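Budget justification note: compute hours in this period were largely spent on complex prediction jobs such as the one shown. Inputs:
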Amino acid sequence: MSLTTMNRYQFTSVCWLSSLMLVAPVVFGQGAQHKGQIQVSWQSASEYASWYERGASVNRFGKGDERLNLSRAVLESRFDVSSSWSAHSVTQYVPDPDNKVGFTELYAQYKPVTNGAYQPQVRVGGFYPKMSLENPDIGWSSPYNYNFSALNTWLAEELRIFGVEASLKRSGKRLAKPSEHNWQWFAGIYKGNDPTGAVLSWRGFSSHDRQSVFNESLNLRPTAGFMSPQLQGQAWQIEPFTEIDGRFGYYVGAHWSYQNRHSLRAYWYDNNGDPAIVNYDTGQYAWDTKFWSLAYKFKITRQTHVIAQAMSGNTAMGRARGVDNDFDSQFVLLTHRWKQFRLSGRIEQFKVKDLDHWTFDPNESDGGAITATLKWRITDNWRLGAEFQYLETKVANRADDNLPIRQIEQLWRFNGEYRF
Amino acid sequence: MQRQEQVKKPIKQNKTRRAWSATALISVLTTLTMASLAAQAVTVNVTDERGEPVNGAVVWFEGAHLLKDTQTIQNDYKMGQRDRAFTPHILVVPKGAQVSFPNYDSILHHVYSFSAAQPFEFKLYRDKPQALKFANTGVVELGCNIHDWMLGYILVVDSTHFAITDKNGVAALDLEQSRVLGTTIHVWHEGFANLDQPESMKVTQLDEKATLTYQLNQSLFKTKEDFSDEFDDYE
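Corresponding output:
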């Protein structure tokens, strides 16, 4: 969307968000807190149309999108129902591809004040598991780079928990014999999230900051594989958060921190999908997707931090696992804050390895990126920034459209935002 | 006109009174200055076991003849939150004082205490400060249920004569030395092994500069460098 052409979708979105803010304090007792972000950006566009416009580019802004965009609007709200219970919502607007507005998170949280070292916590609803250390800013955004790492871009696209998460936190300083080690253990069960892995298999990893909203349907470039009889039940779009097989998925995780200086997060995720099940009405398969993720953050000094994350897993669909892929991704991010400025650099690689024998549907892809970002916090409300990204991707199925398999892109992004 | 005359008369009388008052005031001030030379305000030096100055030690005096200052109890005490930290880190208040909790951050804090002296909890939205009366003496350790690393103390003392040492280990009290003799000095520091047990000593004498040096009887736990930042609440 161009800034000058606010259409009826955007107008409706603004009205909807405003009314939510007005109604909330009446519905909920204790009080409410609203934080928001409106982001405008210009990004040099790729040579090809964007993937969700059925193009061959993995970028958010593809051919023809090289203009000033209202790239994101977020409203993050918290409603306190009682001392221990609060309701949280994150509503996001993105212009691409068709002015989407919806929830990226919506959940109730139980977090009681406890007099002791152990604190139980519960989240119920739709939310991100907290396995990443790159996205702690408003609406699960990154305070470091504008375009997320490929690993977290994938989580933003295809992963959300619709269920219950229980955790137990052990605060070292409150132990009878105080310790500087803090722990938190997590377990979650959920429905939905069955087609997760599909975008990764057919498009490969990507790097952007567009998060799928609830009920999102992501378009894909129709590759030759989609025309095959074996994949005739598969639609040309992916609904990553839907339930297909009726089975529960689960994840377990552990957070460890030491002196508030070292943080480590380890997770095992398994959507427990039955790859034989397909919903012919929506054209969505249940994918059997499982992976582990390890995230680490070290505060070298108060101003300079390093963050790293690695992920490795497998995803498969079809009765005989006709599409069967291993995937992995890693990144290291170094960030330095100086006065009102933050400079962040990230280097990463990613890979999808095709294990199956369906040669008509190649899923092989790999690549890497180097991203450098400078952000300037002019005031608490106004921020500016610029980013350069060198991105190389190799996707085997680009050959279906006689496109070069390998794409090298050098992308600039300039960003201005208002926060409240 | 009548009204103006009525007003003028007292003014003439006031001029005479003012002259007398000025003379009286000068006499009083002279007396006070002489008295204060004899009885200087008390200074306390707190040192650790090795004789090094101790920063952030709370000192207060208690004694049967040491009258409490009502104004000190009625003062406006504030325990704010700024940049996800309690400010001040340590607040000393006399028993019965009211403390307000202004939130200077743009985000919610959920402040609580389980300390026996004053257990409480409340959510603090920006521009909606809460206040609480602290009627019992003791240490009130403050935490935040949203920002786990936040730590602050309100020390409620049975005295209106208290101060906190600066980085040179010096605490200056607005109290003449004659009133201090025979009282008990109490000293507290957040590095004590048992926060509910301040150290105490009977004050029998001060040096010629009205300075009392107090050496701690225990070693202090060192407070760690604070590495917290605004993204640590993503847990």
